[in-house]
Structures are given as structure tokens and as C-alpha cells.
């Protein structure tokens, strides 16, 4: 059984010109020719073409493909093993690429979906995602992070304005409380600490009291958080940490 160059081109999804070129360079010489000189390809030729197209798909130059196929020390089993190894490596690479694309798609779906102008309108000169990469590295595999991203992706400019207004109002009231000398374990301070916890739970992710305690410690130990809260009123970060602890004790005491 033999096939014309047109038939083989159709089988393999290549052009007739490509098959002519392979013949001219000796890479795939048809095993038969008609009396009129037309190329005819047998089953062995088709097997070789399959091998050629496989290596070409992997990016091998034609001269290297020829060297691989014409290696007298290589047998069919060796070629199959090599193809399996190359395919496995290609699949792994493609999977990584697909994962990277999927991650990029998710990143575009989630987070703060505002134009640069809207961000400035809501947050001023503060970048709300300044530490987004660090946050993802530290908590990216947690459900709390995923939930925060999902919620943030749904908020409009007006939603962010309302959230920011609540933060500003809370900060003013807490700063006034510290200025008035209210103790962290006082009712007013604990109530504002509870409001702080509920704000995060309402807009980002659920914050149990033990998690809120951890946040309080971070507000003091991490200089960036400490600077943020102390900018509202010197000493506010430590005051808030202590109020958070007192509030947690109040709600979790048996």
C-alpha cells in the first residue's frame, strides 16, 4: 500500500511543499516513485514522517532530526523512550505555563478593581495594595486570604469609599479615646476594638477572637502597622493591641 504526496500531506497536516523539501534534503525520501516520477510513500515512510513531525513539534532543527533518526545505534525502543521523556518534560512545562496563566487570570478577577483615578479618589496617595505580594506570600494559601480576594473583587468605587469612610471615622474616634485617657480595658476601648474586628469580618473575612489577638500583636511588632496606627495618635498601636486582648478575654471567658 502506498500513498501519493497529496494524500500524505492530508494525513499529516503538512503542505506538499514541505514533503518536497524533506525529500530534497534527504530527510524523508519516498520509498517508491511511479513511472512518471511521482512520489509514493509506504508505511515505513509514514512512520518516519511521524517521527520527524514529533521532533519538529519539540523545536528540533531538521539537521538534528536527521541525525537522531539516522543514528545506527538507536533502535525503535530507544526512540520511543526518548519521545516519552521529551513528551513528559513538555507536558510538565505546559502545565506550569497553564498554571501561570490561570494564576494571572485569577489575579485579574480578584483584588481591588478600580481605575488609577478611582483609586486616588478613594485612597488618596496611599496604595491599598502596596504589600499585596508580601501578603500573598504569607497568607496566600489560607481560606481567609481567598475569601478576602473574592469579596474585594465585588466592591465598586462607592463600596470602597464607604469602607474607607468607616476606617477614617473609627480612627478619629479611637484617637479621641486615647487622648481622653481611656484605658484599654475600659468599655469604650473594648467596644471600639470589637468594632475593629467586626469591620474586617464584614468586608474581608471572618476574624475569630484568637485571630484578632494575633492581629493586635502584629500591629505592635510590625513597624509598618505600628506606624499606621500611631499616625492616628502616638501610642495608639499598643493601646489597640491591649484593647483587642481585653475585648477577646471579655467575649471568650467561660
UniProtKB/TrEMBL annotation:
Keyword Transcription regulation: yes
SMART domains in alphabetical order: HTH_MERR (SM00422)
Classification via PROSITE patterns: HTH_MERR_1 (PS00552), HTH_MERR_2 (PS50937)
Assigned keywords, A-Z: Activator, Coiled coil, DNA-binding, Transcription, Transcription regulation
Pfam families xref list: MerR_1 (PF13411), TipAS (PF07739)
Highest taxon listed in the record's lineage: Bacteria
Coiled-coil annotated residue ranges, if any: 77-104
Domain HTH merR-type: 1-71
Name under which the protein is recorded: MerR family transcriptional regulator
